[in-house]
Amino acid sequence: MVKKDSFVLRHLANLLPEQWWLDSDPLEPKSHPALIGEDGADLVVIGAGYTGLWTALLAKERDPSRDVVVLEQLETGAGASGRNGGFCSMSLTHGFTNGLNRYPDEIGLIQRLGQENLLEIEETIKRYNIQCDWERTGELSVAVEPWQVEELVEEAEIRNKLGDHVEYLDEAEIQARVQSPTYLAALFDPDGTAMVDPARLVWGLEKACLSLGVRIFEHSPAERLEDLGEVIRVHTTFGAVTAPRVAVATNVAPSLIKKARKYVVPVYDYVLVTEPLSPEQLASIGWSGREGISDAGNQFHYYRLTADNSILWGGFDTIYKFGGKIRKEFEYNAETYAKLADHFLKTFPQLTGINFTHAWGGAIDTCSRFSAFWGTSMKGKAAYVLGYTGLGVASTRFGANVMLDLLDGLETERTGLQMVQKKPWPFPPEPFRYFFIRLTQRAIVRADENGGKRSPWLKLLDRLGMGFDS
Question: Per-residue pLDDT tens for 106-160?
Fold first, then answer.
């Protein structure tokens, strides 16, 4: 806890509880009406975040004649898709190491599919002229403790043997790129990550869907699914849509497919944004490559430069509320903002005196393997994907493709993956769930404080295939 009289708090004096992405020249399309009465379609997509919009767009690209309806409980991109940090990563498994530990026999294929997915996102952005400040900057994973250096060396060796092209940077080399007294080494992935304005990406995907004839209904929460044999009726507050196929893309909201709920929990993540850096301030830290950056610890920060050279700084704290509660008041957390500001100033002491202007937070859906999982229901007429754990900007497109493969009855490289065919371990019911998560979080903190050494509890989770590592 940062003391209230600390100089750190002065940097938060001008803080607004608003999303930076929405406090600029918006490109948001016009609002859509709510669904009133009965309707029909070939495919109903529930949720208008990244997963839902990618599902609708890809469905129309696969079959332009397919009638696609999207139902959104609030507004397009109102959830995590519109408020994240904008890291568009090729990883489909929340990082290479997590994927290697879980799918050692498939990691090469998963890496290739992830790279292809990222390239296809870039092509889509160009094809539909989506203005989302896309920058193919790459990403730096920085070691801030000695034990993390060894892990970065090992990861670089393994990835390059698999045909990847990453570069280990020693202390002098990382300091030449970005200057921080905390950096000891880094792993540079030059082509595995792009930076993007997440809200504008949502709006661009929305416009692309509309251009292909997708029908979007906002303020139309799907309340239940009714299996009518050959078709499913999706009931909303004031109407219903009937279709032979339904894709459930509701992210952190309680899934309409109830058997999927036990696999995910909502955790809150928080973000700060600084005022734009002056040329002198930017020169003091370097960062001319504008790479995305994340710490290599179990608890980690992620940060990047925005289009106007503000710094978005988030992560580290992940907070679970007893019972998996999701409430608006949880989206602002003064104690976490003070902690984030303190860590920021220790990373970049040369920026002491800078103002943080925006702060926000929100719930993300996490599962016990830290990467997405899939399933079907109602004899294959409904499909779902969940569990992106905060790294879904790019992987949601892959998740949407898998859902469509499942709904269309296709056997592909994607559907053959173990990560698609198998579920993560479910979380126990409350109150055991709360104590399980808190115990694991404390063990992760101790691991970071103890040279990365994992406790017997974490080793047990590793053996069970849960392996919390961030």
Answer: 999 999 999 999 999 999 999 999 999 999 999 999 999 999 999 999 999 999 9
Q: What is the 3-state secondary structure (H, E, C) of 164-204?
A: CCCEEECHHHHHHHECCCCCCEEEEECCCEEECCHHHHHHH
* Rounded CA separation 10/31 (Å): 39
Pairing of strands 245-248, 382-386: parallel
Q: How far apart are CA 168 and CA 225, in angstroms?
A: 50
Higher pLDDT, 241 or 79: 241
Lookup: tokens for 173:
């080399």
Helix/strand number for the chain, H first, E second: 13, 20
Residue 193 half-sphere exposure toward CB, CA atoms < 13 A? 30
- 467 pLDDT band, cuts 50/70/90, is low
Alpha-carbon distance of 361 to 370, in angstroms, equals 19
pLDDT at position 468, please? 55
- Identify which of 200, 98, 87 has the alpha carbon closest to the alpha carbon of residue 136: 87
> In the structure, what pLDDT confidence band is assigned to residue 336 with cuts at 50, 70 and 90?
very high
Structure tokens at 170: 């020693």
**For the segment 124-135, what is each residue's pLDDT rounded down to a tens digit?**
999 999 999 999
Q: Which of 206, 255, 225, 239 is nearest to 40 (CA)?
A: 239
Torsion angle defined by CA atoms of residues 397, 399, 401 and 402, in that order, rounded to the nearest 10 degrees: 170
CA distances from 327 to 138, 294, 363, 372, 386 (A): 34, 28, 9, 24, 20
Nearest Cα residue to 403 out of 41, 59, 49, 47? 59
Find all residues with CB under 8 Å of 230, minimum gap 6, and list them.
244
pLDDT (mean) for 212-233: 97
User: Rounded to an integer, what is the distance from CA 442 to the centroid of its chain?
Assistant: 23
- HSE, CB side, 13 Å, CA atoms: give it for residue 188: 18
Find out whether 378 and 232 touch, Cβ atoms under 8 Å: yes
- 313 contacts 296 by C-beta, under 8 angstroms: no
Q: Which residue has the tokens 């909303």?
A: 236
Q: How far is CA 274 from the centre of its chain?
A: 21
Average pLDDT over every residue of 417-435: 94
Provide the pLDDT for residue 6: 78
Q: Please, which residues bridge with residue 226 across strands? A: 233
pTM exceeding 0.90: yes
Cα–Cα nearest to 343, from 292, 298, 303: 303
Going from the C-alpha of 341 to that of each of 23, 145, 179, 308, 363, the distances in angstroms are 21, 20, 18, 20, 20
- Name the nearest CA neighbour of 322 among 433, 427, 444: 433
Supply the mean pLDDT for the chain: 93
